Amino acid sequence: MTELKLYKHQQKFLEEVRAGTNKSLLAWECGVGKSIAGILWLKEGRDEDALIVCPKQIKIKWKKDLDAWETKATILSKEEFKKYPLKKWSAILADECDQLASPLFMGKTSQLSRKMYELIREFKTPFLGLSATQIRSTSWNLHTLLTFTGHYIDWKSWRATFFKLEHHPYLPRPAWLPKSNWRELIRPVLEQYADIVLLKDCVGELPPVTHEKVKVKSDPFLPTEWEPTAAFFEEHRHEQKNKLSHILDIASGYRKVLVVAYYVEQVEVLSRELGKDRETFMIHGGVKNQEDIIKKAQESDECFIVIQASIGAGFDLDTFSCCIFASMSYAVRDFVQMKARLRRIHNLHPVAYHYLLAGRCDKQISHNVEKGKDFVPSEWNPNV
């Protein structure tokens, strides 16, 4: 095997693994080498018959990393894992583990989370979870992950810590609702059980990052939908109409530009129109061979790549220096993950982010996500 260099935080984690003092959740910032840390954990006597569960678009990347480190594991996508029969593994590594972390004991458990819980409970399998965003939208995400790692906390005690029983006239009965400061309350718990590494802690000085909000003039809008959620989607789609010229104007100063869009049809239209200017690649949920497309975009000298906003985890676009959000995902996790594609520890450089905001829908999504709160269309208030 070719000698592969470890960064100091990876070496520290390896030493903790060998000493048996490592934590089982790696909340390392995107781009600092979580995958390599996971492989180091497997190589320490756990890879005889190990399982890796990861998003389907990065299975090939995991295979290449395992080969480079001469490590063995069965790699399953989340979809494949749900259908795979229960069996004993030597270890389980879950990449983007937050996607497996729906509440376990509140009657809302996803099939994926239930399957992982049953597997670990049945065979007491060692578990390592990797994710820069361990907590997605509720404190129950962390409760589930702690259960996977063997740190079960009584669910009633957890509920009392992060939720409050409230009475409201619009509810048929009292309900446990999240405390307004639950994210502040959960931080010490995360620090206790998860290994946290930030990019700024791994390098001496980070290259500059700039953020610009670009106001886009929107055409007059005449609604036809009256149901609130449908009305939101109709207006939000309308706001996307005049963004192409702004993208081209910004892109004129860069060789390689990542364009992010929420709607599949917007991804396809932008890809087609931008392709008239320079080589353009496109990825959304219905596109196959996503890893091959990423590879070609990385190797291109000058190009656009247009990616659906919900597909932002597990790949590198560190040869790009500009990211334009034509429209944003409603989920904080997707926003964090997508921004991190351009900032990887092995190839740091100045990066510019541009946010195209055309109307009140764009602006409210941006406001929520920047404040760390997922946007919910059904809760949209057009008067805000």
Describe the structure.
The chain is of the alpha/beta class. It folds into 2 domains: 195 residues, Rossmann fold; 171 residues, Rossmann fold. The chain has a 6-stranded parallel sheet. Helix 14 links the parallel strand 13 and strand 14. The chain is globular and about 60 Å long.
**How would you characterize the largest beta sheet?**
6 strands, parallel
Instruction: Give the termini separation.
Output: 59 Å
Radius of gyration: 22 Å
Write the CATH fold name of the largest domain: Rossmann fold
Strand content: 15-25%
Secondary structure elements and pairings:
Elements: H1 8-19, E1 25-28, H2 34-43, E2 51-54, H3 59-68, E3 74-77, H4 78-83, E4 92-95, H5 111-123, E5 127-130, H6 140-148, H7 155-162, E6 163-166, E7 175-178, H8 182-193, E8 194-197, H9 199-202, E9 209-215, H10 228-238, H11 244-251, E10 256-261, H12 264-274, E11 280-283, H13 290-299, E12 303-308, E13 322-325, H14 332-340, E14 351-357, H15 360-370
Parallel strand pairs: 1-5, 1-8, 2-3, 2-4, 4-5, 9-14, 10-12, 10-13, 11-12, 13-14
Antiparallel strand pairs: 6-7
Helix pairs in contact: 1-2
